[in-house]
């Protein structure tokens, strides 16, 4: 697929969605406080650009900190589980439990424990992305091609050499998939934390705009959040593709 097609198709889809949105808002007899028109949202974006920029910076900082800590923690735990089956048996139920409890239920407790600052939002982001990173990397370490393992053992590789020279490189593509998922969902944790208790951030701004029936501002904050998430995912995907240059890339036709 050419670069023009890869960029053009999403743009055409986006333009079609905006046209449908505009038609419903203009001729669907929907009150503006329920569904503002795209031009009203655009005016809110420009009018409140300073406020939206500051809020986006707060949410982005929380997201990046949570992403970094979650990836490092998930990778470390996956390595421990690969080294010791006992660690896996004891820790995997705890990892699953962290996903069994809805994040909305944990958010008030985290705000109570870590305060209304960034700490509670970073912890929430870590909890959201910890499972996909740990699960993907752990599966990658367990699914090393048996022929590679047999060859390394035949050549006298120790347990540590087998892990770091065979199993770890083979598991990097799986870990990259987990990181891509984490980059896409990391803002969820930060925004949920801001909804529960915060003084800044896009989630706090959306909640405040909702209580004031400033739906155009709420939509503007949503668009900024969506653009930030897409840009973050694209940067992470580009970095991972460059880092794992030996992994073949399959492009959709």
Q: Can you tag this structure with a few keywords?
A:
253 residues; elongated; MetI-like fold; mainly alpha
What is the beta-strand fraction?
under 5%
Q: For the record, what is the CATH homologous superfamily label?
A: MetI-like
Shape: elongated
By CATH, the architecture is named Orthogonal Bundle
Structure summary, number of beta strands: 0
Largest sheet: none
Number of domains: 1
Structural class: mainly alpha
| Helix and strand pattern | HHHHHHHHHH
In CATH, the topology is named MetI-like fold
Separation of the first and last Cα atoms: 6 Å
Give the overall pLDDT as a whole number: 82
CATH class: Mainly Alpha
Assembly state: single chain
Q: Can you tell me about this structure?
A:
It holds the Pfam family BPD_transp_1. The chain crosses the membrane at residues 60-82, 94-116, 185-205, 217-236. By secondary structure, this protein is an all-alpha fold. It has one domain (44-244): Orthogonal Bundle (MetI-like fold), CATH 1.10.3720. The protein is built from ten helices and no strands. It has helices spanning 3-27, 38-47, 49-83, 85-100, 103-114, 118-142, 146-154, 159-196, 202-211, 215-243. The longest helix is centred in the C-terminal third of the chain and has 38 residues, at 159-196. The mean pLDDT is 82.
Short summary of the structure?
The chain is an all-alpha fold and 253 residues long.
Please describe the topology of this protein.
Layout lengths: L2 H25 L10 H10 L1 H35 L1 H16 L2 H12 L3 H25 L3 H9 L4 H38 L5 H10 L3 H29 L10
Helix pairs in contact: 2-10, 3-4, 3-6, 3-8, 3-9, 4-6, 5-6, 5-8, 6-8, 8-9, 8-10, 9-10
């Amino acid at each position: 697929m050419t670069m023009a097609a890869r960029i053009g198709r999403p743009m055409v889809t986006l333009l079609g969605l905006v046209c449908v949105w505009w038609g419903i808002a203009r001729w669907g007899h929907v009150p503006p406080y329920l569904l503002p028109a795209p031009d009203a949202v655009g005016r809110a974006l420009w009018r409140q650009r300073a406020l939206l920029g500051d809020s986006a910076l707060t949410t982005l900082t929380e997201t990046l900190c949570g992403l970094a800590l979650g990836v490092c923690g998930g990778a470390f735990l996956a390595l421990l589980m690969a080294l010791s089956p006992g660690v896996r048996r004891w820790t995997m139920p705890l990892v699953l439990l962290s996903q069994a409890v809805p994040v909305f239920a944990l958010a008030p407790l985290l705000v109570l424990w870590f305060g209304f600052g960034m700490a509670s939002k970073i912890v929430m982001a870590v909890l959201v992305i910890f499972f996909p990173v740990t699960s993907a990397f752990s599966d990658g370490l367990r699914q090393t091609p048996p022929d590679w393992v047999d060859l390394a053992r035949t050549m006298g590789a120790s347990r540590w050499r087998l892990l770091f020279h065979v199993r770890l490189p083979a598991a990097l593509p799986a870990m990259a998939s987990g990181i891509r998922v984490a980059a896409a969902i990391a803002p969820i944790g930060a925004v949920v934390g801001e909804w529960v208790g915060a003084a800044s951030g896009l989630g706090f701004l959306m909640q405040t705009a909702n209580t004031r029936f400033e739906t155009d501002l709420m939509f503007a904050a949503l668009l900024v959040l969506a653009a930030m998430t897409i840009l973050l995912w694209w940067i992470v995907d580009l970095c991972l593709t460059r880092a794992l240059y030996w992994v073949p890339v399959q492009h959709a036709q």
